[in-house]
Amino acid sequence: SLTDSPVTLKILQNWVPRVSPYFDKEHYTYVGHQIVIQESIEHFGAVVWPGALALSQYLESNQEQFNLKDKKVLEIGAGTGLVSIVACILGAYVTATDLPEVLENLSYNISRNTQNMNMHKPEVRKLVWGEGLNEDFPVSTYHYDFILATDVVYHHAALDQLLATMVYFCKPGTVLLWANKFRFTTDYEFLEKLGNIFNTTILAEFPESNVKLLKATVREN
Asked: What SUPFAM superfamilies has UniProt attached to this entry (predicted)?
């Protein structure tokens, strides 16, 4: 039900601003760990978007409600890897996925920020929405407790494939957490389609950044 009133939150400035002419590394602190993210101006997926900050902050603050310890977590469209790194610090078995051209930077950030920690080693894999899901992630082997997605909806042509990917991975018992900056009618149309398929709740809104955080679960008959 979308009737429960969501929490209104603000994205906290919990990264360390650095005076640098280069668009390269951002420093964040979540769950008591400093996380250094290398961005790349060449790809959309290689920049930290506000949805990632919102979801990272929410997971850090709501560990009792969403306990990721020893849970299997899949991030789709992981981008720079910030959310996957936070989930990893929170104790999850993380699989971070994105398009082939983003994987090198994603792998670099994830290994750099998790290498010396006593935690489950995260995995980085290619996932093109809607393509080869059954071959690469057969249902018999892969079941996830949480699917995480941030700022995956914007002006692009793969929205139907994205929805199909969410449907594919969301099994009974799986929780999808999707944070997105809402800018265009297409974003709201996607939200409506999601609501037609899943039980959807808006958990939190970050009005200053136009970000909404949604929880979706499979409708059980």
From this structure: S-adenosyl-L-methionine-dependent methyltransferases
Q: Rounded CA gap, 82 and 96, in Å?
A: 10
Backbone angles phi, psi at 125, to 5 degrees: -140, 155
- Residue 142 DSSP code: -
Model confidence over 68-95: pLDDT tens digits? Answer: 999 999 999 999 999 999 999 999 999 9
Taking the domain 23-216, which CATH number applies? 3.40.50.150
Instruction: Please report the DSSP string for 34-75 in residue order.
Output: EEEEE--TT-GGGS--HHHHHHHHHHHHTTTTS--TT-EEEE
Query: Rounded distance, CA 109 to CA 80, Å?
Result: 7
pLDDT tens, 190-215?
Answer: 999 999 999 999 999 999 999 999 99
**pTM of the shown model:** 0.90
Domain positions in the chain are 23-216
